[in-house]
Design goal:
heterodimer, A: alpha/beta, Glutaconate Coenzyme A-transferase, 8-stranded mixed β-sheet, 3-stranded antiparallel β-sheet, 7 helices, 11 strands, globular, B: 223 residues, 10-stranded mixed β-sheet
Chain lengths: 236, 223
């Protein structure tokens, strides 16, 4: 019998090892799997490369993981936002590495990684600083730069509903990077508000088919990052 | 009082946004950048249907939610709560940037730090070594969307020209801007150079020239 459910966020992330590459879903707090991230803070492994659109806010969630010194390198498109101070401080002090990637190139690198495509050409960033040193080629008179697919050891993702096969549906704009990250990670770990019986999710509505998911954990009432930040919370 | 010290204000931001909205054809798919571009959504003329895309996964962005009804999982690219219109669609980042990079979005309206006379755009970094570099989706939008409109104050707060011969800030994209809507004028980037198409009420071509660091061609269509 297939049952991808595990009993706690801790059990879900306990195989994440030192030096792992971890994709973390979310666009700001929307879709950020905060309970899985907090379990990873408790787990304490370090030297991580994290691929995520932003770098978190306040001192909870992704910002807490960075503040705890567990992240060696961030690959992201927008590392500063309102209430983000942990990453900027460490970056200015030279204590964390940054690979800045245009958001669409980041998404396509993840999509390509998941689809077994090692590299691709894109017009994005041509003629800018972010294309410097990259191989380029002209197709039909237009210049493109070579970008590499991204894969990860783990993905941490938040979805709305799952079944025990790992089929997923998301909520509104909280899906964002989640579906493509599930495809590009060796082990995709997903927190969901609810697990339903197999067959309850209409096959026409499945966004992430279960083949891309390894572990599912129920977090019925996830913490809201902005509320924690507003309350001045610090994790742990 | 000399010409140079006369206070020239021109259009308000809302009037600039209305000018942009009037140039968006019915039925267009449009992505609006963060800041002044967001005002365009409120200026779409009655009877015109345009569909707004936000790169974090929504086609059919609606107005701001009524007080007390904000949903933190329904936001725009500026991470502000929005609503979804009837007929909206949600999707993941792979599909979102397929829309953007694959040339499916008709028009993108962006803010600018600098625009060059050839249509180069700088809007993501001042190049300050102490700043945290952050690019977001700007480079994808200018590379993939069919038409790029810029909406911006004509000069910086210090009065320095934002429309220049060559951008000194790091580029977002080369030769990407088609039209520039400022508080003083509407300009078009052409093979011949920057053409002034409209002047704000009470603003002269000479005054626009004075506040622009690139040669201008007088090609007004509202004389």
């Amino acid at each position: 019998m297939i049952d991808k459910q595990v009993s706690s966020p801790h059990e879900a992330i306990t195989s994440i090892h030192d030096g792992a590459t971890v994709m973390i879903g979310g666009f700001g707090e929307a879709g950020s799997p905060i309970e899985l991230i907090h379990a990873l803070v408790d787990h304490g492994v370090g030297n991580l490369t994290v691929i995520s659109n932003n770098t978190g806010s306040g001192r909870v969630g992704l910002a807490a993981l960075i503040a705890n010194g567990q992240v060696r390198k961030m690959i992201c498109s927008y590392p500063r936002s309102a209430n983000s101070m942990v990453f900027p401080e460490l970056f200015r002090a030279g204590k964390i590495e940054l690979e800045l990637v245009p958001q669409g190139t980041l998404a396509e690198r993840i999509r390509a990684g998941g689809a077994g495509i090692p590299a691709f050409y894109t017009a994005t960033s041509v003629g800018t600083q972010l294309a410097e040193g990259k191989e380029s080629r002209t197709f039909d008179g237009r210049e493109y730069v070579l970008e590499h697919g991204l894969r990860a050891d783990f993905a941490l993702v938040k979805a709305e509903k799952a079944d025990r096969y790992g089929n997923l549906i998301y909520n509104k704009t909280a899906g964002n990077f989640g579906p493509i990250m599930c495809t590009a990670a060796e082990t995709a770990i997903v927190q969901v508000r609810e697990v339903v019986e197999v067959g309850e999710i209409d096959p026409e509505c499945v966004v992430t088919p279960g083949i891309f998911v390894s572990r599912v954990v129920t977090v019925a009432s996830p913490e809201q990052e902005s509320a924690l930040v507003a309350a001045g919370s610090v994790y742990p | 009082m000399s010409m140079t010290s006369r206070q020239v204000t021109g259009w308000t931001r809302e009037e600039m946004a209305a000018l942009v909205a009037a140039d968006i054809p019915d039925g267009s798919y449009v992505n609006l950048g963060i800041g002044i571009p967001e005002l365009v959504a409120q200026c779409v003329p009655a009877g015109v249907e345009i569909i707004l895309q936000t790169e974090n996964g929504l086609l059919g962005v609606g107005p701001e939610p009524a007080e007390g009804t904000a949903d933190l999982e329904l936001i725009n690219a500026g991470k502000k709560p929005v609503t979804a219109i009837p007929g909206a669609a949600y999707f993941h980042h792979g599909d979102s940037f397929t829309m953007i990079r694959g040339g499916h979005i008709d028009i993108c309206v962006l803010g600018a730090m600098q625009v060059s006379r050839r249509g180069d755009l700088a809007n993501w970094s001042t190049g300050d070594p102490d700043a945290i570099p952050a690019v977001g989706g700007a480079m994808d939008l200018v590379a993939g969307v069919r038409k790029i409109f810029v909406i911006t104050e004509h000069t910086t707060r210090k009065g320095e020209p934002k429309i220049v011969d060559e951008c000194t800030y790091p580029l977002t994209g080369k030769r990407v801007v088609e039209r520039i809507y400022t508080n003083l004028a509407v300009l078009e980037v052409t093979e011949e150079g920057l053409v002034v198409r409209k002047l704000a009420p009470g603003v002269t071509f000479g005054e626009v020239e004075e506040k622009t660091a690139a040669p201008l061609i007088d090609g007004q269509c509202n004389r």
